[in-house]
């Protein structure tokens, strides 16, 4: 038993060193660039920010990550294999200006859509992974986001893999109308099968997780984690304030508020996220001696 | 001239008709003819915005009208067993042609007082959780479920957020996807956003001809995309929220015809069709093996929105 | 199909007439006796009260029923077959004064314990039935109440019968200590099996349903009915008032209050109770053509 | 002389011992001897009321102390997914000798501040529902559950009634009775009424030597039966609420010995025994087939209180 723990600890130390070395190699960053914190407005050297996992060293704000930066922070180095990378919408881009906006965003972000899916290893444990990216159309869910996430879930069910989804979304992709709405049902149905198969699903909420995504796969995790202070809610704050005709509490719809209301399991800081995920995956590894 | 204007015009013509002396026969006939012409034009050339108008028409029948006419011995059951009893969600047991069914309805009121109690048909988390409780009960007893959809959307309230309406809706989507009993959804009037979808994960989805079903209200849509709520009519036209659009997209299965002018002009006509179609579908679905039922339900939603390239 | 309904209606009419004729025969009642309503204090001729199902004709209060009077009001005439009628406690009556009190109550009520169990038909449908009686030790649950109810549930499970329990209880039978507490677990475990077997359980709450009974089988019905204005709650009102140090609302812990809080399905007046139960049983009859 | 008085006496003797000059050797020795005698007498002749005293002793270790020492990598999980997160119920995942387990604890605080957060270990409905959620999650992953019981009882609050603590406790009783994974309960200190029972429907029930487990607190018992809360000591003596009584009655299975004077005098001693016993029982239960496990659990509770006649 003790041996087991030693091995685990060794592995963990190895990962830690691997990750920190990973983080010490700035990738493709123009030198001497600064970025200002969206919360405290302090100006931070880009390189410092990157080494600090894009957490503001001044105020601790967890700044927006691209899907690929998130992957880099989370998975065992080099283990990510992307699925359906180039999937884009064939029809239904008829809404005025929609097609152009999609193309513009694709050029700007290097992404084809608002989610990146695939498989990866965390601490040596293979899992299916979907990471939404709010740089692409505010992470809104249209048919492609729904389809990619559904395929990722279905793959996990078929291969008996645990599933991790990093959520961030402004809600449904309005431009795709009703077909964006039904993606909520489609992804939830796929999760029902994953759940029935007795597999682990960890939902990780990041800023912001709202609308249709909050009311589907985001809230269906066996375990729901969230980044500090991120916005989590279904309806928009302004709409609510005008409905109830009163001031909302300052922390309304923050992760801390939602934790207190009983809807998420833990708030996990970015620096701990990889370790916490690995710990959870380990605790759910299929035991040969059991059942 | 849209339907709103046509109906206003008809109303004013009817008023002048009533004010005419009985001897003005010719004049009367002319007005009657004019009314009939307007009516024909208006009701046979309706656009999406006209459907929005009809779907929200004050006289449009409510879920309770359908429950009273479609089912025998409706016994309403209350409560979510967690927090409260949501008046916007009416659920219970009933007999449909001798078949015990569970009915889950989104209920708007007919008077202001009733609407206060029913929150204008906008569910709180308790409403979704009541539906979930009764749905699981129906599953236990292999009892088919019929849902009646009529909501402008989830309620943008403080308490609804605090008590997790996102979670409650998500649970509906997941649980209904795998519920081991037949489910039929009927979109009666307004099917707005996640609130409507939560009641629409079904084996068969029917929709009244002039009901609407959309990702968001036209007002909300215009407000988000064009920052101008007043462009709702324009939004309605691009949103493809009518039964015919949804059938084409494969989101609904059956359209229930409405009489000229909308369901409130002849409810019996609507009930007769709905009754027949519900019975037909219920009998069809009840014959299926559980495994087939569930895999077909899965495939139904799985197929929605499959137009992509470049995998 | 139509034929089916006609037959049902005929049966129902038959039952109605049978019951009303049943109610018109006063049984064993000394003439000219009056009883005063526990709510409005009006004096009511005993015979009138009986014909009115022991509902006060002045204020509508649903007055306390004996278990056998409840049975008379509910089941098809002559269909009740009692189980475990004479079951009493063999050991564990050591608490000072407990044995004497039990014997006194047995003499006074003609009951052996605070619950009567058995089978009966309602509208021709056979079911298992347990009716608590608050005239016996305030309907408190000790080992015998727990054992009789458990046996009744187990019988229902074995014979695939629906189950109806009329609850009324002041809580656990203190005099039997921990062995009264564990009856909550025992009865709930038996209900878990009845539930797993896909059988219907209707819990019918009457005044008062509190303490250990409220926190076990009373709250576990597929369908939970209650008589108007009856008290339903776990903790005592006085204890709560002293804890929260404030006035409690007038309707606190009434059936109407608990309905609003989402914990019961319907409030059913005594005059409707038999018909409502029959309707529910009919809707749950096992269909040959199904599954 | 009861334990309360003995400990007070020892405290005062220790005070006089401290005040003595260092040369008063004989006198010192006498006092030390006297203290030892009182201690021996007090701790080896304890009655039920003394156990109540120890079970509630301010220094008695709390659930969090056991969690920290018994398990590796405890990861606390929060929330019931309906209404809130109850600080009086601590639940989460942990590793026990390399075996993943779900831990569900009734947690009292150590400071007033912590006790405000933990409501002095009295659960609200949210606490039971959190436990239910995590228990079903454990079942999904075939993960054994270890519950730690320490509550004076359910909370007699207005909100707790409004949000249905009766229903929440009843659900615990029903769900745990049929939960398809091994469950071990450990009564640490106070096991009061339905609140404790809700966490005690288990395959194996352990109890610390000086813990108490009863239908009601002795104070409540005296108040209800004798209308006199002050007769709590007398009540404790007739209530048979000690581990030895409960073992005899078949309500618990194993008694975990405490050091002289109670668990707080040597927590390591208690942990060592508990660790061994938990591992032994866990390995035994994990070997069982699901069906056997469940039918044995059923029989365990089914047998409680079988002394009747005249069927
Ligand atoms: Zn900052
Ligand atoms: Zn009266």
From TrEMBL, chains A, C:
Positions contributing to Zn(2+) binding: 37, 40, 56, 59
Cofactor binding annotation: Binds 1 zinc ion per subunit.
One Pfam family in the UniProt entry: Carboxyl_trans
Leading EC class: transferase
Localization per Swiss-Prot or TrEMBL: Cytoplasm
Keywords noted in UniProt: ATP-binding, Cytoplasm, Fatty acid biosynthesis, Fatty acid metabolism, Lipid biosynthesis, Lipid metabolism, Metal-binding, Nucleotide-binding, Transferase, Zinc, Zinc-finger
EC number in record: 2.1.3.15
PROSITE patterns linked: COA_CT_NTER
Main location: cytoplasm
Superkingdom: Bacteria
Catalytic reaction annotation: N(6)-carboxybiotinyl-L-lysyl-[protein] + acetyl-CoA = N(6)-biotinyl-L-lysyl-[protein] + malonyl-CoA
Zinc finger (C4-type): 37-59
Protein name: Acetyl-coenzyme A carboxylase carboxyl transferase subunit beta
Source organism phylogeny: Bacteria, Bacillati, Bacillota, Erysipelotrichia, Erysipelotrichales
Gene assigned in the entry: accD
Automatic annotation (TrEMBL), chains B, D:
Keywords: ATP-binding, Coiled coil, Cytoplasm, Fatty acid biosynthesis, Fatty acid metabolism, Lipid biosynthesis, Lipid metabolism, Nucleotide-binding, Transferase
Coiled-coil residues: 229-299
Catalytic activities: N(6)-carboxybiotinyl-L-lysyl-[protein] + acetyl-CoA = N(6)-biotinyl-L-lysyl-[protein] + malonyl-CoA
Enzyme nomenclature, EC number: 2.1.3.15
GO CC entries: acetyl-CoA carboxylase complex
Quaternary structure note: Acetyl-CoA carboxylase is a heterohexamer composed of biotin carboxyl carrier protein (AccB), biotin carboxylase (AccC) and two subunits each of ACCase subunit alpha (AccA) and ACCase subunit beta (AccD).
Official protein name in the record: Acetyl-coenzyme A carboxylase carboxyl transferase subunit alpha
Annotated source species: Longicatena caecimuris
Highest classification ranks of the organism: Bacteria, Bacillati, Bacillota, Erysipelotrichia, Erysipelotrichales
